[in-house]
Amino acid sequence: MHPAKPRSDASGLPWAAATLFGAAVGGAAWALTVWARAYCDAGYDAGGRLTLNLLLPLAVGVGALAGPAALAIGRRLARPAPPALRRALPALLVLAVTFGLAWWFFATQGTLAGYPGDSGRCPASNVPPAWPGWLPA
Fold it and tell me: Cystine design at 18: which of 34, 67, 96, 108 (Cβ 3.0–4.6 Å)?
């Protein structure tokens, strides 16, 4: 009997990179959310900070799971594609999914529309002025 020949794409590096990238984007989204709430002083009281602290492991965990899931889906979709697309599609899908989830997290948790902010530095939508206008929140 001959031992099974290892596949050339069996490296765990893309999976580890997608996991770490997703976790990092989740952590960055959480940090951006904390900054926005603190800057606008909306939902940054004791209860709001507790909620944010409980959301940290959730944001990082979802990001860490979304990265490899997007990589797996991208690899499955790219199988019949030409070699260049076979390499690019999974990476682009990881970027799109993780940044999309981060944007959604910030839009739903970081900008509490209608929440009375005390700082006076933000409009009623509680979107910080430093947020780019071309990116909806």
Answer: 67
For 24-35, how does the pLDDT look when each residue is reduced to its tens digit (9 = 90+)? 999 999 999 999
Tell me how far apart the alpha carbons of residues 106 and 96 are, in angstroms, rounded to a whole number. Answer: 15
Do 89 and 78 form a contact (C-beta atoms < 8 A)? yes
Residue 5 is predicted with a pLDDT of 58
Contact 91, 68 (CB under 8 A): no
Helix then strand count (H, E) for the chain reads 3, 0
**Pick from 114, 112, 103, 113: nearest CA to 32:** 103
Cα–Cα distance between 24 and 61 in angstroms, integer? 10
pLDDT at 51 over 80: yes
Query: What is the CB neighbour count within 10 angstroms for residue 91?
Result: 16
**Can you give the residue ranges of every domain in the chain?**
14-110
Q: What is the pTM of this model?
A: 0.85
Give the closest residue to 108 by CA, choosing from 61, 69, 68, 51.
51
